[in-house]
Amino acid sequence: MLTCARGGGGANLLTSRRTTRGQIRSFHYMMEKKVYLHYSHTDSCNSARWNGRECHEFMYSSRPWQKVVDFYSNVVNGKVPLSSLFQNEDTKTCIDEVVEEETKGRSTGRWERVTFKILLSYHGTCFDGWQKQPGLNTVQGIVERSLGRFVDDKKAEKLKDKCLPLEGCTTVAGRTDKGVTALKQACSFYTWRKDIRVQDVEDAINEAAPGKLRVISVSKVSREFHPNFSAKWRRYFYIFPLNDEGEELGSELGVEGENYIIEEHNRKLINGYGAHFGEERGHLGEEGGGHLARDDLAESERGRKPVSFSIDKVNQLLLQLQGRSLSYKMFARDTKASRSTGPPTECIIYHVRATEATLPCDNKVPGKGGERVKVMCVELVGNRFLRRMVRVLVSTSIREAAAGADNDALLKLMDATCRRATAPPAPPDGLCLLDVGYAEFNPENCLIP
């Protein structure tokens, strides 16, 4: 929550016809005086833990995100496999072969319609997310416009009477946000026409946005198939680029060595200014039972917080979530209040791993070989994921690893009463929906064992 000490009606200054330069200067001055709030943790790592703004700066500043974007673009277009991250030919790809589902013999009445299962690969930075929205370039909008030519006559007439464009109607396994890439997104489309071939559907979509959107496969399936409700698991992959300076602690030190360095660094921070931090911050009350504190640390004190994290520590934190049915409401964002409590927020993580890898980039200098960038890769497989849940899990695990928190830190955050207890979402550029499974999950097909 962002509050302004004296800002009521200030937003109207810019829209008023009588706005003067003095009023504009006054408005900007008040906006600069915002009071930023962050969650007040009570553990021993509180003084070493980044607040929301520091997390955002660590995630975005001075990182080669463009190289991650370019890599995903090459994967989407089939130029390089995702397994090239690990430089291991024996690594199994997590993208399984398509298994077509047979219809169940019902060919009369309402079962007479033809349903197509479409697997799509698209580059997230080229679109404003999946869901169709007015005036935005979305994946759903492009796909449904492409499928408009296959709509049956009866539906086409209804659309014409309502002055609506001739578009198909798709159902998707899971909506992706703006900037999020997908390698095997599943959606379905049905029509009453019997003359539509699988190749016709594939060609129509591939012609819509070459180089940005590509069809992996199209198959005819039973009418009972639903991309979302029939799915048994989803697999996400996150690539977090490391700085050129190598600020992140690598795995060569070993877990014990890394933990010792982090704990020793945080002990010095706490002894150095932890008490001063506790005295100076103003307690601003509670929000939903969670304590909030002012973000008014001096710049010199912010600079003394950790600037590195251990990938092995991130892996230890995430492993605590595997195989458990937990409520991830504290790790969700932009969800309705009705979904913030109760069973709807419960998810089961079947598999989660974090490891270091190298990112192959385009060879721009002939004869010198392609430049490779170190990255941290996180693979998550679960029965369902809440909005922005994966990105918040990644950023929070990095924050807790840098602060030297206990291995069960993420589990403890499940009981928090305010979403400020978790870190802001990591950038969408690193997230990719790998595939959606309609059979039982097989751990042997994971990229990171």
UniProtKB/TrEMBL annotation:
<dbReference type="InterPro" id="IPR001406">
    <property type="entry name" value="PsdUridine_synth_TruA"/>
</dbReference>
<comment type="similarity">
    <text>Belongs to the tRNA pseudouridine synthase TruA family.</text>
</comment>
<dbReference type="GO" id="GO:0031119">
    <property type="term" value="P:tRNA pseudouridine synthesis"/>
</dbReference>
<dbReference type="GO" id="GO:0160147">
    <property type="term" value="F:tRNA pseudouridine(38-40) synthase activity"/>
</dbReference>
<dbReference type="GO" id="GO:0003723">
    <property type="term" value="F:RNA binding"/>
</dbReference>
<keyword id="KW-0819">tRNA processing</keyword>
<feature type="domain" description="Pseudouridine synthase I TruA alpha/beta">
    <location>
        <begin position="369"/>
        <end position="438"/>
    </location>
</feature>
<dbReference type="InterPro" id="IPR020095">
    <property type="entry name" value="PsdUridine_synth_TruA_C"/>
</dbReference>
<keyword id="KW-0413">Isomerase</keyword>
<dbReference type="Pfam" id="PF01416">
    <property type="entry name" value="PseudoU_synth_1"/>
</dbReference>
<dbReference type="InterPro" id="IPR020094">
    <property type="entry name" value="TruA/RsuA/RluB/E/F_N"/>
</dbReference>
<dbReference type="InterPro" id="IPR020103">
    <property type="entry name" value="PsdUridine_synth_cat_dom_sf"/>
</dbReference>
<protein>
    <recommendedName>
        <fullName>tRNA pseudouridine synthase</fullName>
        <ecNumber>5.4.99.12</ecNumber>
    </recommendedName>
</protein>
<dbReference type="InterPro" id="IPR020097">
    <property type="entry name" value="PsdUridine_synth_TruA_a/b_dom"/>
</dbReference>
